[in-house]
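Backbones bend. To wit:
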Amino acid sequence: MLRGPRGEPLPGGATPAEASRAFFASRHSANAETLTRQSRGLEEFFAYIRGQAGLTILDLGGATQQNVSFITNLGHRIYSEDFLQILNEAFGSDGAMDQSNPGRIEYFLRQALDYPETHFDGVLIWDVLEHLAPALLTAVVERMRTIVRPKSYMLAFFHSDTKVEAVPYYTFRIQELNLLQVSQQGSRHPAQLFNNRSLEKLFGSFESVKFFLTRDRLREVIVKV
């Protein structure tokens, strides 16, 4: 039986191991296209924690040495979860399985976001949320609301083109307070795409949502909890 990253059996049977392995092999390919770009969203995120020490940050892009070193060198703690890997293990390659199944949603939340209330002072969500269908996305956003302290910031990226059938997915490595190394790892069919209005609705229960539109068609979003 295929098991999740923390050793729990998947509800409803195993997902295809071959598809999972192929997905992750492509995701971590050494041939990934890489560029360095400025990020106003990242700059805003770090402006929030500037001058503070001992904060706890969650990175949903998986563990990278650059991000771990950057955050810890600022005097903070970092937790890393490979969100897309867990999604693939819970719901199959490219999210092909039913993301409205309550048992699988609960399994996914235990694997990806099983933390105490108000545990984090910020979340680097990156580009993972547009791969979640509505029922799973709602559950994830609500869980993040509980595990992040009030007034904290979350940084998320969304593709601004809402008419494409597949979108790239990336690894994000922090270079400076406003500079990211972005590596495209492949493409994936999004579960849903968002414009500004739909993002405001998604995060409507949070204190504020701020948008930064970039040249590479990524919409950077700062959410204040």
